[in-house]
Amino acid sequence: MPISRRDLFQKAGAIAVVSSALHSLGGKLLGATPLPQNAIAGPIRLDRNENPYGPSEKVLTIFRDAQSLSNRYPRKQYDLLIAKIAALHAVKAEHVALGCGSWEILRAASSAFLRPGRKLVQASPTYPGLGEFARGLGAEVDDVPVNKAFEHDLDAMLLRAGNSAGLVYICNPNNPTGSLTPREHIETFVHELPPKTMVLIDEAYHHFVSPNNSYASFLDRPIDDPRVMVVRTFSKVYGLAGARVGYVIAAPDIIRRLSAELLQFGVSALSAMAAASAIDDYEYVRLGIKRNADDRQEFMNQANVRMLRGLNSHANFVLMNPMRPPDRVIEHLKKHNILIGPVIPAMDKYIRISLGTPADMQEFWNAWDTMGATGEMAM
Fold first, then answer.
1. Over the stretch 254-296, which tens digit does the pLDDT of each residue have?
2. Which of 137, 311, 364, 370 is deepest in the core (most CB within 10 A)?
3. Alpha-carbon span 162 to 293, nearest angstrom
4. Residue 222 burial (CB < 10 Å; 0-12/13-18/19+)?
């Protein structure tokens, strides 16, 4: 159908209005003052263990000022980030590999060390990513229930490993329990494993561990065992979950094996620069640690007032028995525009709540209090 000159100008005018609006919105989103979470329509997300406060202002400045790199592949930015990570952990660059989030590193580890006939041994429950990758490769996955203290049952895991385990996965602090397994127990366990069994220690929640004598990072206090790989992420204390940056520290030959399975330059130039800046922002890391500890304590205080008991958490989430059917609690909160973690098959009487901002948690408890004491949902 022919377009008249008048229609053409009307369409052009409409496009100009939309373009102007989008430009204005982009300026607001990328301006010096970030929008608060709830200024953007959507649910309150207490379901993914994200940092609700986001990255530091220094990191946001990197995102704003380095947009011109969007048309460039990462080059020196990659090397710079690896060098900063190596310096942070007092290792050489050849001991470091980057991943598109720690998720990609778990996938690479499964591809490098698992196959049919070589099984994965892990706790139950734990972070499910590595197990999913292993099953996709046709490897057996041996899920070993956590013990009564919600720690990895290392004695049982050692028995299950036998001679056929290609990889053992230890998430410490563990997700979704938030619990710790004592460092000395893990060391003993590693030394007793068969010599060809690799060990992947996931320290995603390392920064949130409350000070205690039973914990020490395997990066801060490494052991002399080339089978050990330690994974970290920028998604938690640094607030960069959306940037997708993870890394692994391991022996150089292990790094080469993992790198063969990783995407080449899988971390964007912009994300690499942001992560490098985040490492340098020591004050923001300290603030994030303190803020999480305060938010976690306040959550426990509110739970105790309501005669609820959460597991002692060393992470940015809490696993709690709601004294009600978890699926009904999840649905009730969803109706109030609040999302929490899904039902955990291995601990199906519990719910996992990621810690949000004080305003988020006030909304959470307001919605919670509309439930009846016996689990009957208020209308």
1. 999 999 999 999 999 999 999 999 999 999 999 999 999 999 9
2. 364
3. 39
4. middle
Last residue of a domain, one of 264, 280, 296: 280
CA distance 220 to 236: 18
Closest CA to 296 of 173, 366, 210: 210
141 Cα distance to chain centroid: 22
Structural domain of 99: 58-280
Beta bridge partners of 228: 199
CB count within 10 Å of CB 1 equals 3
Residue 243 and residue 30: Cα distance in Å, rounded? Answer: 15
User: Each residue of 319-348: pLDDT tens digit?
Assistant: 999 999 999 999 999 999 999 999 999 999
3-state secondary structure of 291: helix
Q: Of 280, 300, 323, which marks where a domain is finished?
A: 280
User: What's 358's domain CATH number?
Assistant: 3.90.1150.10
